[in-house]
Amino acid sequence: MSAKDRLTSVDAAVKGRPLCGPSCHCLAEFFREEFLKHHKCLEQQREYYSDMAIAEAEDALSRAIAQIDGLCQRDDACEVISRLLRQIDSVTKLSAWTEPETLH
C-alpha cells in the first residue's frame, strides 16, 4: 500500500458509525497532541520526501486534527483514531523513534 493510499484512507475511517454523544475534551486533546507529534516528525523528515508526499501527509494530518472532536463522539473513537494514527505512523515512523522506556 502506498503512502497516498494509507493517508487517503483517513476519509474512509472517519465515515461510518454515527456520533454517539458529546466529545470527551481530554480524549480529543490527547489524540490531537498525538497527531501534532506526527506532524512535527514529518517536518523533521521533509528533506527525505517529495513535495507531493509531504503535501498529502500534511493534508491527512490536517483533516484528522480538524475532525478529532467529532471522532471522539463516536462509540468506537479509540479504535478509529488509533487506526488513523497507525496509518500516519506507517509514513512518519514516529513509533520507531520513540524510546521504549518513555511509552506508557
Jot down its keywords.
104 residues; mainly alpha; 69% helix; elongated
Strand content: under 5%
Mean pLDDT: 80
Instruction: Report on the biggest sheet.
Output: none
- Structural category: mainly alpha
Question: Residue ranges: pLDDT <50 for 5 or more in a row?
Answer: 16-21
Q: What is the overall silhouette?
A: elongated
Order of helices and strands: HHHHHH
Measured distance between first and last alpha carbons:
29 Å
Number of strands: 0
Output the number of helix runs. 6
Query: How helix-rich are the residues, as a percent range?
Result: 55-70%
The radius of gyration computed from the alpha-carbon positions, rounded to a whole number of angstroms, is 14 Å
- How many domains, as an integer? 1
List strands and helices in order, with pairings:
Layout (H helix, E strand, L loop, with lengths): L2 H12 L10 H20 L6 H16 L1 H4 L5 H16 L1 H4 L7
Helix pairs in contact: 1-3, 1-5, 2-3, 2-5
Kindly describe this structure.
This protein is mainly alpha-helical and 104 residues long. The protein has one domain (3-93). Helix content is 69%, strand content 0%. Helix 1 (3-14) runs parallel beside helix 3 and helix 2 packs antiparallel against helix 3. The radius of gyration is 14 Å and the shape is elongated.
Short summary of the structure?
The chain has 104 residues and is mostly helical.
